[in-house]
Amino acid sequence: MRAMPEWTLYPHQEGFSALDFLRCRLPAAPTAYLRRLLLRGKVLRGTACVQEHDLLASGDCLRLPDSARIKEFLEASAALGVEILWETPHFLIVNKPPGLAVHRGQGHEEDNLLLRVERLLTQRGEKVRPAPIHRLDRDTSGALLLGKDRNAAGELGKLFMAGAAAKIYLALVCGPGQGSGLLTAPVAAKGKIKDAVTAYRFLTCTSDFSLVELRLETGRTHQIRRHLAACGHPLMGDQRYGGQGIRGQRHFFLHCRQLSFINPWDGHPRSINAPLPENFVSALARLQLCAGERA
Question: Sorted alphabetically, which SUPFAM superfamilies does this protein's record hold (predicted)?
Fold first, then answer.
C-alpha cells in the first residue's frame, strides 16, 4: 500500500487555516475540490479530521488520502514550477527559484516567474492579472510578493513605498568577516545619487567566504550587491561587482529569506520565511558554512 501524502507545517505557517495550507501545497487543485476534501473528513491532523477554517500550528502534520486524483494534482502542481508560501484572495507570496527572471524580457519570453503564476491562476479559473510588488534579480531566490489585481498591487505597493515592509536576505560573500552594522554608501539611481542603508550581520565564516544576514532599510536597484562590493565583501560569484566564484559556479547566492508586513485587508502582521533552494544548501555544505535553523 502506498503512503498517504503528508506535510509538516513550518513555523511561519503557524495560524494558517487548513484550506490556506492546502492551497499552498496543491496550487493546481481547484479550491472547490480542496473544500470538498475537508468537508468530507478526508484530511487528517494526527488521527482527527481537520475542517476548512481550523487553524494550524507549527509542527502539525496533515495527511491526505492516497488517491489517483490527488496524485494527479501533486504532479500538476510540481510541473507548474511555483512554490506558494502564502496566499489570500488579494495576493500571494511565492518562493522564487534562482536563475529565473521575474518579468518577460529578451531571452525570458517563454519562461519567467510571472508567466508561471499566470498559468497557475488561469488553470484554477481565477481571472486575475498578478503583478510583482518588489524586485528580485534573476539569480536572487526567495520570497516574492505579488498582488492579484491592480487594486491589490496598489495597496501593497503603498506599504513598500512607506517603508512598512521588511525584507531579510542571506548572502554568501567573499572573504572572512564578523560583527554587525550599517552600510550607508549612497548609490546612483535614475541619474541621481540617493541614500541607501543596509543592515548586516555576519553569521559564520571560513578563511575565504562568509554567510551574512542583510536587512534592507531602503530599496535601491542592486543595493545589496553594490553595498557588499563597496565594503570589500562582494557576493561570491557576482562577476559584475567583482565577486570571486568557485569552480562550476555561474551565479551568485542571494536569498530573500523573510518578508514581513501588515496585511492591509485584516490589519494582522505576518512574517513569511522562504526555505533555501537546494543549490544554496549545497554551496553551504561545500564551503563548510552553517545557515543555522532552516527557514
Answer: Pseudouridine synthase
Q: Is the pTM of this model over 0.85?
A: yes
Residue 272 phi/psi, 5-degree rounding, is -115, 125
In order of start, what are the domains of the chain with their CATH numbers?
1-80 (3.10.290.10), 165-275 (3.30.2350.10)
Which of 114, 120, 116, 191 shows the shortest CA–CA distance to 153?
114
User: Do 291 and 211 touch, CB atoms closer than 8 A?
Assistant: yes
Half-sphere exposure (Cβ direction) of 7: Cα atoms closer than 13 Å: 16
CA distance 235 to 128: 37
Catalytic (active-site) positions = 137
Residue 62 · residue 21 · CB < 8 Å: yes
Q: The cell 550599517 sits on which residue?
A: 182
Distance CA 21, CA 19 (A): 5
Taking the C-alpha atoms of residue 183 and residue 204, their distance in angstroms, rounded to an integer, is 19
